Amino acid sequence: MTATTGRVALVTGASGGIGAATARLLAERGMRVVVDYLHSAEAAGRVVAEIEAAGGRAAAIPADVRDPAAVDALIERVGALWGGVDVLVHNALTPYAITSFREMTWDELGGKLDDELRAAFVVTKAVLPAMTAQRWGRLVYLGTGLSTRPRAGMIALGTAKAALTQFARYLAQELGPDGITVNVVAPGPVTDTAISHVLDEDQRRRQVAATPLGRLARPIDVARVVAFYAGEDNTFMTGTTAAVDGGMSMH
């Protein structure tokens, strides 16, 4: 039995990519996992089936994490099933424009900022009461290396995730006395995700060449770092950002 056995983890945007890899890994480590999704019911069901086939426990529950009513309904369903959420992995990625600043509209930039922070705000507010009551909790947010290493066309995502990272730091300061850690995992380019297409083959080769470990990240590479932050072994790290990019950010 692991120390994490029985903890309840909510993974947003968990029907594929990093979210699905994280859901499977947390379940493997003994957590009961809520697989949140928005549109991909079939894919979320497959993640749950894989977890259960491996002996774990999981449930797929739909919710738009930007919508307070939908998130409240999700938390109510989780409460009836397993009780309060101990671990939040906020991975859900809201839509964003890929364009230059010159071509961008305020709605494209401001809308992404609003969606990003609204989703983090809403889902964090919903899970916080149970964590505060038990004086233990783990909040893990998925950021991006684009927040510190700009790439052409990615201003909306990079700016919004930079705001999310600072939001997490403020939470870490406020919630530390309640035994709640708050950290960000910031991947570089990741293969086999919904946004892998952002890199064309030439860009992919350049990114690999700039990575000391000689390849791009896979979803499981990111999931392993998330799982550390989410687990009992993380007793004294909060307000940090982990770059999961094979050393690319050293340059």
TrEMBL record:
The keyword Oxidoreductase applies. Gene3D superfamilies: NAD(P)-binding Rossmann-like Domain. Keywords: Cell wall, Oxidoreductase, Secreted. Pfam families: adh_short_C2. It is found in: Secreted, Cell wall. Its main location: secreted. The keyword Secreted applies. It comes from the Bacteria. SUPFAM superfamilies: NAD(P)-binding Rossmann-fold domains. Coiled coil: none annotated. GO terms for molecular function: 3-oxoacyl-[acyl-carrier-protein] reductase (NADPH) activity. It catalyses: a (3R)-hydroxyacyl-[ACP] + NADP(+) = a 3-oxoacyl-[ACP] + NADPH + H(+). Belongs to the short-chain dehydrogenases/reductases (SDR) family. This is 3-oxoacyl-[acyl-carrier-protein] reductase MabA. It comes from Nocardia aurantia. The gene is fabG_7.
